[in-house]
Amino acid sequence: MDGNKISIVTHSSGFHTDDIFAVATLSLLLEKEGKGYTITRSRNMEIAEKADYLVDFGSVYDPSIKRFDHHQEGGAGKRENGIPYASFGLVWKEYGVDISGSQTVAERIDKMLVQPVDFVDADPKGMTLFESPVKDLHPFDLGMIKILFAPTWKEDILKIDETFLTLVSYAKALLSRMITYYSNEVEGEKFVLEAYKNAEDKRLILLENSEYPWLRVLPELPEPLYVVYKNIKNDTWSIKCVRDFWSYKARKDLPESWAGKRDAELEQISGVPGAVFCHNARFMAVNKTKEGILKMAGIALNS
Question: 61 forms bridges with which residues in the sheet?
């Protein structure tokens, strides 16, 4: 280890998604602070004891001395929802707000990324995150990193440390992008809430920009059924159904007769000039003008 740089130490040999992201989180923290650092993988306790940050190794969880392990007897605690902390969660709990600059952003990243990673590593008994309705079909998740990138029986085991550092770089890029994404989302939600506040009929929310992040905000409000917005890329207007954030079930579908129809046929069936398209699943439709899409919205509301 370089005595002039901050040392991050984690265990050697096999890696898991939680230690990859824990090290990535600390790397982002130190880069934000303008500090140089080294990353060392070792099971040598003398090296571990000298580390500035020790992650996923050492059987100690104590943020005051920068120790973040969860393998000790009894683990390192659980969240209120029952998901135990793994090393990623422990590091993010301590530094997530500092790195992201926002409690709200840190909480969203914790829910979207950190908790699922911790869940897979901690393997809480009697709990499952996903139940697939199709036998032997499961979502591809970041837990596959340890399987896909670990050396196979035909590959050089000695390159595992190099692979780990490559994955840390990937994890840093992903975390950085999530921070940008959720920071912008939180800022944009203010415009959505303002549009809701100003709406005469709160079943229909009008947005002047298609990029405003309404998908998380409007389902939390009781009245909205549809959102109408201008497509800034092609100067058309769209209507979309408000649905629960984690499902495709709309509060109210668009009229059944519109499903899959386009152009002149949709104009004739809807009775609205400028109609362009209605998705076959009836969750969205397009019109050439604001006036046209608002007419379609009125029909949908009263159908």
Answer: 68
**Sheet with 284-287, edge to edge strand ranges:** 204-207, 226-231, 236-241, 284-287, 275-278
Interatomic CA distance for residues 250 and 266, integer angstroms: 21
pLDDT over 70 at 129, yes or no: no
Q: Which two tokens stand for residue 160?
A: 């595992």
Amino acid at site 81: N
DSSP code of residue 78: B
Spatial distance between the Cα atoms of 269 and 228, rounded to a whole number of angstroms = 20
Q: Is 245 helix (H, G, I), strand (E, B) or coil?
A: coil
Topology adopted by domain 199-302? Diaminopimelate Epimerase; Chain A, domain 1 (3.10.310)
Tell me which residue of 34, 45, 43, 48 sits closest to 5, measured CA to CA: 34
**What pLDDT score does 197 carry?**
96
Which DSSP letter does residue 84 get?
Answer: B
The SS3 call for residue 142 is helix
pLDDT tens for 75-90 read 999 999 989 999 999 9
Torsion over CA: 285, 290, 296, 300 (sign): positive
Domain locations along the chain? 6-183, 199-302
The three-state secondary structure class of 140 is: coil
pLDDT in tens, 236-247: 999 999 998 777
- Of the two residues 125 and 296, the one the predictor is more confident about is 296
CA neighbor of 297 nearest in space, from 175, 215, 204, 171: 204
Rg, Å, the chain Cα set: 25
